[in-house]
Design goal:
5-stranded antiparallel beta sheet; 31% helix; Enolase-like, domain 1; 8-stranded mixed beta sheet; alpha+beta; 2 domains; BirA Bifunctional Protein, domain 2
């Protein structure tokens, strides 16, 4: 097994870095990646951001929401979390076997006295609380398995950025499995820094031979990754436009709105009050986001604008 080190904590760069290594690096043997991100919300490939993420809160706190290439649920990254990725072409005998790929993490945690176990389809727990979620994807003749390790993450912020399950949105998108979480640091028998934990896990996985098993990317590789970061991972089209089609319904005591969204754009906007239903075509084709909604309100007649202003917070909080 080989490893490649990322010196970046930029979530946009690291997601592009991981995808590039997965799809384009010569794979003579398995590759292990351990990496960290500054605060970011990472949603699964087939998820509806507005059903999973407190978008307005994240924007107000400058926490980016980024779509990854694998399925699964929404996770929160910060510098107290470690991400691990295993890239392999030898997966035929362990296809969709999450317990196989999480085994090294679980064994390492148990050596530290954390009493970690595999749980459900793809989680690692300490006791009854989750410290790791995992996902997989396939490309040509290779597979990516990746997961999180909550070492010393801000769990309060984690719960703030991830939305509670809502009944106001109907979507075919994959829903996250919301559960209680904990940090590894609270279960260690001997105190350890995140840096030491990360290096020790890497050494454990590589049988203590890190230096001779480290690969390096070329400047050409890094330039391509930077381009992928900007063109894909920083784009609205990827992060929001790739959300599965959904319908959102919001009500007050007097009226309601029903909005159909496809490819991140409003397809239909229906406003209901008293015994009337009005389709407001001015919203058709705009991005489903708070800034576009507010801008479009200014194009409406005053009475309609006033009636719909109160839905701004309801729709996007």
């Amino acid at each position: 097994m080989k490893t490649i080190i990322s010196n970046s904590t930029d979530p946009y760069f690291n997601l592009a870095w991981e995808e590039y290594i997965f799809k384009h690096t010569l794979l003579e043997e398995d590759i292990l990646l351990l990496w960290q991100n500054e605060p970011a919300v990472i949603v699964g490939r087939n998820q509806n951001i507005f059903g999973e993420v407190n978008v307005s809160f994240c924007q107000s706190k400058h926490v980016p929401t980024i779509r990854r290439i694998s399925g699964g649920g929404t996770v929160y990254h910060d510098l107290g979390n470690i991400n691990y990725s295993v890239i392999t072409k030898n997966y035929q005998d362990v296809l969709s076997n999450y317990s196989y790929f999480t085994k090294p993490v679980i064994e390492f945690l148990n050596e530290l006295g954390c009493n970690a176990t595999f749980s459900g389809k793809s989680d690692i727990k300490i006791g009854d609380k989750k410290i790791s979620g995992n996902a997989q994807m396939y490309h040509q003749n290779r597979m990516l398995h990746h997961g999180t390790i909550l070492f010393d993450t801000d769990l309060n912020r984690l719960h703030q950025v991830i939305k509670n399950k809502t009944n106001d949105i109907e979507s075919v998108g994959v829903e996250s499995n919301r559960t209680m979480t904990t940090n590894v640091i609270d279960h260690l028998q001997v105190s350890m820094s995140l840096s030491t934990f990360k290096q020790s896990l890497l050494a454990y996985w590589l049988n203590k031979d890190i230096k001779s098993n480290t690969l390096k990317l070329t400047q050409e590789d890094l330039d391509i990754i930077e381009q992928m970061k900007r063109q894909k991972y920083m784009s609205w089209a990827w992060n929001f436009g790739e959300s599965p089609a959904f319908e959102i319904n919001k009500h007050t005591d007097e009226d309601s709105v029903r909005i159909k969204v496809t490819a991140g754009l409003i397809e239909e906007f229906l406003y209901k009050y008293a015994d009337q239903s009005i389709r407001i075509h001015t919203f058709s084709g705009i991005k489903f986001d708070q800034a576009s909604y507010k801008q479009t309100l200014n194009q409406l007649e005053d009475n309609t604008k006033t009636a719909l202003e109160k839905f701004t917070a309801l729709l996007f909080d």
